[in-house]
Write a structure and sequence with these properties.
mainly alpha, Ferritin, 5 helices, 80% helix, elongated, binds fe (ii) ion
């Protein structure tokens, strides 16, 4: 297997796990501020990221490659407000999209067609992830400083399944 593609796949496993860790950190921050709907939304997002990591790990194992788990970094946002965390979520998803596209490009260039096909669903997934993150940010921005609007937005975020 092409070594650069293999390395990028391993880095993607790490990035998905780091995403889970980041969202779990944000969820905890929201919980401690009693913004429980957004906390719930972020906790589910964290779980989804673990599932993404598992898909990459499973794929590497299928290719008879041993996934290399690395140290997980936490880039903890210093501003812990819901608005700042919603912005950080969208920014992070954009970073993940960039990483997936970069990996797909490397797979194409290396003629790793199975990898390229595997990545297609993640390209689509990222369109959805960015859209969801943008929706959350829009809602929080719309509510602004209006206390009852903030409560309504949090109830909407609490309904995520
Ligand atoms: Fe992900």
């Amino acid at each position: 297997m092409n070594q650069e593609v293999l390395q990028l796949l391993n880095e993607q496993v790490n990035l998905e796990l780091a995403s889970a860790y980041l969202y779990y950190d944000m969820s905890t921050a929201m919980k401690s501020q009693n913004v429980n709907g957004f906390a719930h939304w972020l906790a589910l997002q964290a779980h989804e990221e673990i599932e993404h990591a598992e898909k990459f790990i499973h794929f590497l194992l299928e290719l008879d490659q041993e996934p290399e788990l690395k140290t997980i970094a936490l880039e903890r946002p210093s501003d812990r407000s819901p608005l700042a965390l919603a912005k950080a979520t969208l920014a992070h998803e954009k970073t993940v999209t960039e990483s997936i596209l970069n990996l797909r490009k490397a797979a194409l260039e290396a003629g790793e067609q199975a990898v390229e096909i595997f990545l297609q669903r993640f390209v689509s997934e990222q369109v959805e992830e960015e859209s969801n993150a943008r929706d959350v940010l829009d809602l929080i921005q719309l509510a602004g400083d209006d206390a009852s609007a903030k409560l309504r937005v949090d109830a909407i975020l609490a309904s995520r399944e």
